[in-house]
Structures are given as C-alpha cells and as structure tokens.
Write a structure and sequence with these properties.
The protein has about 110 residues and is α+β, with helices and mostly antiparallel strands. The protein has one domain. About 25% of the residues lie in helices and about 45% in strands. The protein is built from two helices and five strands; from the N terminus they run βββββαα.
Length: about 110
C-alpha cells in the first residue's frame, strides 16, 4: 500500500518576543496520509518553539540557570509573510523523526482498518 504524507497547518499561536509581535510560538498541525485509493487518515500534533528565556534550578551545579530564548532576530519572517511552505519547512526540521515514524505507523493502521 503506497501512502503519500503531507502536513496541514491548523493554527499558529504567537507571542511578542524581544518587542517583536506575532512571533510563532506553536504550530498546530495534522500529519495526513492518503493511499492510492483515496483513503485518508491523520494524526494531530503541536510543535512548540522555545521563544522566551526560562530559569530553572539545576541540582547538578547547585544554582538557578537561565536559558536564553531560541530566537534569531536576523531570521525573523513577519507573520503576514509566512507561507505554508515556510511553516512545513520548520516542521520538517523540528519534529523528531521518531514522532513522524509513529505518525506513519498509526496512519497506516487507520487506513488498513477503514
């Protein structure tokens, strides 16, 4: 059974980071599989992007540690210029391969049992 997979962007959550509004903080998506007979199945997911500094206590060093935001102002794309292609590129780069493999297994089972 040949299945074609694709991302469908359901929603973008945004935040203001370093004074820049509408920085994408989470992408809510469907990972969709379609077989050669047109049967469709999907898995839903959310990919968070760490955008703000956070502090935590590290027992290993015995003190609080602050981790800076993962956000490069030089790579910023204004919200109104984002495209599905850009966002799918982010998902391809950040969703772990093990999660994608799990999605594919679940989708294959759903299609086989439909």
């Amino acid at each position: 059974m040949a299945i074609t997979y694709s991302w469908v962007i359901r929603q973008l959550n945004t935040a203001t980071v370093y004074g820049i509004p509408d920085v994408v903080s989470h992408v809510q998506y469907d990972y969709v599989g379609t077989d050669e007979n047109g049967k469709v199945a999907y898995c839903q997911g959310t990919e968070p992007f760490q955008l703000v500094p956070y502090t935590y206590y590290s027992p290993a060093i015995g003190k609080e540690v602050t981790v800076p935001a993962i956000f490069n102002k030089d790579d910023y794309i204004p919200y109104d210029q984002l495209t599905d292609q850009i966002i799918v590129g982010w998902l391809d780069a950040t969703v772990p391969a093990s999660a994608i493999q799990t999605f594919k297994t679940i989708i294959t089972e759903k299609i086989a049992n439909s």
